[in-house]
Amino acid sequence: VRMFEEQSLISITVKRVEGGIVSNYLADHLELDGLLHISEAQGSFIMDPIINSEETAIENAVAPVFVAAGSGITPIMAMIESMAQSSTLNKATLIYAARSKDDVIFEQRLMELKAAYPDFVMITHFATEASGHLNQQCLVDYCPDLANRAVYTCGAEGFMSTVRAASKALGVDIAAIKSESFGVPRKQDTLANLAQLRSMSGRNEVNVTLSKTQQTLNASGEKTLLEIAEEAGLKPKFGCRMGVCHECKCTKSSGQVVNALTGELVSEEQTQIQACISIPVGDVAIENW
After folding, report:
1. What per-residue confidence (pLDDT) applies to 180?
2. Of 43, 159, 232, 277, whose CB count within 10 A is highest?
3. Pairing label, strands 272-274, 249-254
């Protein structure tokens, strides 16, 4: 925030992911003076404004506990920097799970912030045979008053599920637990429901007909409409790739899809769907591709 306000610059942190479209492009093809177009910031993983307000007494707000794993520190770091800018960071706690010291992202900057804000609690958890993975007992040990705090977590889906379940078990209000996923998690109940629906039709392969380009794409497995189109060399519009921004919305003229986030069958009458989280159950026709 400060860098943008003072220098009109933004900073991003990119970790190469196997098969990742954006991370691999940036690592392999982006050059100095390259031009990228980005949208306005979107999404729901944001901090309660009352926490980060200089005009509001922090005692009246729910102080945040940030729980990150690996590259999940990235969006959390933006919140931490924002709190530092408004001088409210002393009320925050960061619990950062990493495989080793070499895997701690932003280590130098976090040390600088810790020095500037001595009451900012920062704990790094390394999973060893002795310590194990971050669990409910760890959260109690690291933050004894967790039940009275707001929890913001980001990391792998399994990690976040553990944090959410442990936080609720320790008394954190469900409304005070926020998380952000990298990509669309394929939940076991979603896949089971998809398999059951397809078995009823007696087929696993589906055809996706694109009315605008007069193409028919054959697909199987659990791929979303967006993934099916991209594998065929098409470039439909998309944004977050996890059902938040609605940039990938397309018009379905026939067929049914399963919502990859919830596992629910979307009504055949619903024509406007999000391609990044829609998995075809049977043959589907897309009108505007």
Report:
1. 86
2. 277
3. antiparallel
Q: Is the pLDDT assigned to residue 129 strictly greater than 80?
A: no
Q: At what angle do helices 107-116 and 73-85 cross, to 10 degrees?
A: 30
Mean pLDDT of 46-67: 65
For residue 219, give the amino acid letter: A
CATH code: domain 188-286 is 3.10.20.30
Higher-scoring residue by pLDDT: 138, 190 = 138
What distance in Å separates the CA atoms of residue 78 and residue 248, rounded to the nearest whole number?
A: 26
For the chain, which residues make up each domain, given as ranges? Answer: 45-180, 188-286
Q: What pTM did the predictor assign?
A: 0.69
pLDDT, average across residues 162-182: 90
Which among 58-72, 108-122, 187-201 has the top mean pLDDT? 108-122
CA–CA dist 68, 105 (Å, integer):
11
Beta bridge partners of 68: 96, 154
Q: Is the pLDDT of residue 4 over 80?
A: no
**Is residue 60 very low, low, confident or very high in pLDDT (cuts 50, 70, 90)?**
very low
**CATH of span 45-180:** 3.40.50.80
